[in-house]
Amino acid sequence: MIRLRDVHVEKDGVPILRGIDLDLTQHRIGIIGRNGSGKSTLARLLNGIETPTRGTVELDGACDRKALRRAVGFVFQNPDNQIVYPIVEEDLAFGLKNLGLPKAEIAARIDAVLERFALTPLRTCLTHQLSGGEKQMIALAGVLVMDPRMIVLDEPTTLLDLWNKRAFMAAIDALAHRVVVVSHDLDLLRGFDRVVHVEDGAIVGDGSAGAVIDDYIARSQC
Ligand SMILES: Nc1ncnc2c1ncn2[C@@H]1O[C@H](COP(=O)(O)OP(=O)(O)OP(=O)(O)O)[C@@H](O)[C@H]1O
Q: Domain ABC transporter, which positions (predicted)?
């Protein structure tokens, strides 16, 4: 379980997050808030890309950034920031090679993740020729192939059309992993187990998706 206690993040002396306390226990957790409220910074803390200026981010009771990086996969908003190799299977193999896994296991893991999402035909495709939706799926596959315990997605559907958005979210829904999604798409998060509302670097709403989203909409109309 990931637990944040009194987490503060400052950049150049400017407070970005203030006194964040969170226990991430639910299966599907959404994070909402206005532009610049601190959502992405909070999301990046969850897998150790970002570190607190003050406070702690614990995984199973221990502050271990390396363990956090291994346990939590991160899917970026723009898959071009995530896909680095020219061929799909090379890209999927990258992190696994870094782990020092044997060739046979790397191949088996890539087979499995591609089959799972019906992406096998893309295995030898050039990554720069993929459509936006295909890229987003390959970026997700690249995170899943590392077998993380939890996945954080930062605005994963903004580049997708309605069809690809539905397909992508169906893929997310099918995961047994704990999932945290940062999104401005409130409809996407309505079915989630919990939604956290961040404003001006602090949590101002935290609870059932319906209640927190309705309160967020009401505030926007003031
Ligand atoms: N490295 C940095 N140096 C200075 N300020 C930063 C830095 N990174 C983020 N910020 C500021 O921190 C605030 C929160 O940024 P963050 O990206 O977490 O917001 P967000 O809620 O995800 O926004 P959006 O919905 O627009 O993506 C913003 O005002 C941003 O300009």
A: 2-222
- Residue 115 within any structural domain of the chain: yes
ipTM of the complex: 0.95
Which residue's CA is minimally distant from atom 17 of ligand 1?
40
Ligand 1 pocket, 40 CB below 6 A? Answer: yes
Task: Quickly tell me which residue has 């999932």 as its tokens.
Answer: 179
What residue's CA is closest to ligand 1, atom 3? 11
Tell me if 127 CB under 6 Å of ligand 1: no
**16 CB near ligand 1 (under 6 Å):** yes
**Ligand 1 atom 18 nearest Cα:** 38
β-pair type (178-182, 150-154): parallel
Can you give the residue range of the structural domain that contains 143?
A: 27-47+65-220
pTM: 0.93
pLDDT tens per residue, range 111-145: 999 998 889 999 999 999 999 889 999 999 999 99
144: Cβ contacts below 8 Å, ≥ 6 apart: 73, 113, 116, 151, 175, 177
Quick check: CB of 41 below 6 Å from ligand 1? yes
**Is 83 part of any domain?**
yes
∠ at Cα 150 (62, 54), nearest 5°?
Answer: 40
